[in-house]
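Problem 12. The chain below contains 302 residues. Write out its predicted structure in token notation.
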Amino acid sequence: TWKWVVGPMFLYLCERLVRLWRSQQKVVITKVVIHPFKTIEVQMMKKGFKMEVGQYIFVKCPTVSKLEWHPFTLTSAPEEDYFSIHVRIVGDWTEGLFNACGCDKQEFQEAWKLPKIAVDGPFGTASEDVFSYETVMLVGAGIGVTPFASVLKSVWYKYCHDATNLKLKKIYFYWLCRDTHAFEWFADLLQSLEAQMQERNNAEFLSYNIYLTGWDESQATHFVMHHEEEKDVITGLKQKTLYGRPNWENEFKTIAGQHPGSRIGVFLCGPEGLADTLNKQSISNSEADPRGVHFIFNKENF
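Solution.
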């Protein structure tokens, strides 16, 4: 038995040593931005840090806890000179980070007063393969939109400079969210991307559908009164917010009809139940003929 145990244990110890060494490297917090819906954006810099879209890191803040490590998806693009995460305040550790960064205070917080942060990573996910397809479906649920923030930012940077070598030709983006406040921090990015595509006469590149799955009676009355306005009352985008949940069977059939003979990447960051639904739809809407349309499902659950 020991012959079979020694090898894996040696590799595990090597990995732990590498992760310990990486976590000891200096990380500088350059900016902390408070977004609506109890969400903060932490922008950081670390020497030699290289990332790809959709990757994640482990974060430790000794001021909050000397032992706890928490995973966060990177929301910055590889083209930016910093890396960032978005943290939603939902528990003791995130509340401690919120307070340690001085977000509970009204006055401006000096950079040297910000807490020390240890970072381990980045680590790869399925979202890295987005640029390997000509057509993709990106599905985010709630805060699960974060890996696609990185993808859409990277697309925006590529279009600002030179998109001729970009294999990706069409993005279908779906965001499902229960609360209207969650749209606010992400809507600015979509507005910038929407304007960029219109300037380059390529408005068809990004098709996005934002679904609000929860609302009350007063909100519904407000939505109805402003429905005829040019821009959406919630997001400020030209594409109006939809209410309820998408009919995935119709969505898959429509996309399959528009891209015959294509390999379409389906990327999800969301709960397990939604993953099962999309996986079944990907299988049932893929053709047996190798020359037909095929949906390739990739998931990242939380």
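Discussion. Helices lie at 2-23, 92-100, 146-161, 184-199, 217-225, 248-258, 272-284. Students who got a different answer should revisit the alignment rule from Section 12.3.
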